[in-house]
Write a structure and sequence with these properties.
By secondary structure, the protein is an alpha+beta fold. Helices cover 42% and strands 11% of the residues. A 3-stranded antiparallel β-sheet has the order 2-1-3, covered by helices on one side.
């Protein structure tokens, strides 16, 4: 019989180790090049949509190194053991961006809830690569009233963007 993995215990261990290292969630997010929402989810032991994690991520392993644990410590904690201290202090990992985007932009794109987007092509027939890409992001816990207000502002802004000479590709409103 397999033992149920205790993601909440892992999250609590991360939070305790972070506090012992005198780090805030914002500090951890900055050093790991992720959003604070990601750090909160790890410490809660559940994804932002409240579903439990199903595997240890590279961010969790980087968080382990940041608080002075070995990379195998998350596995150990999930198996009911304690974390294993790293033998040498490890600095935060280099940013991992498979998108090729600057770290700050990559982080912003991963943070929050994606609400809509638009693409405005600026190029001519001979230059179809020049474009502006706008992604509308909101807080994970945005209220319906805030969403309605934001959506009204976004529709007005999107109309202005689409008035720029060139073709626009827009997502479908839901």
């Amino acid at each position: 019989m397999t033992r149920e993995r205790d993601w909440e215990a892992l999250g609590k261990a991360y939070a305790e180790a972070r506090k012992a290292a005198d780090l805030t969630q914002a500090d951890v997010a900055e050093q790991l090049h992720v959003s604070r929402t990601t750090v909160q989810a790890i410490e809660r032991g559940a994804l932002p949509n409240s579903s439990p994690f199903t595997k240890i991520t590279s961010t969790m392993r980087a968080y382990a190194r940041l608080v002075g644990w070995t990379e195998t410590s998350p596995d150990r904690i999930l198996n009911g053991e304690g974390p294993e201290p790293a033998t040498q202090p490890v600095s935060a990992p280099a940013p991992e961006s498979s998108s090729g985007l600057p770290t700050a932009i990559d982080r912003e794109l991963r943070a929050g809830k994606t609400l809509d987007h638009t693409v405005v092509h600026l190029g001519s027939e001979s230059d179809d690569d020049t474009r502006i890409i706008v992604v509308l992001k909101g807080a994970e816990d945005i209220s319906e009233d805030e969403l309605d207000e934001l959506w009204h502002k976004w529709r007005r802004t999107r109309r202005h963007l689409q008035a720029i000479p060139g073709e626009s590709d827009t997502s479908q409103e839901t």
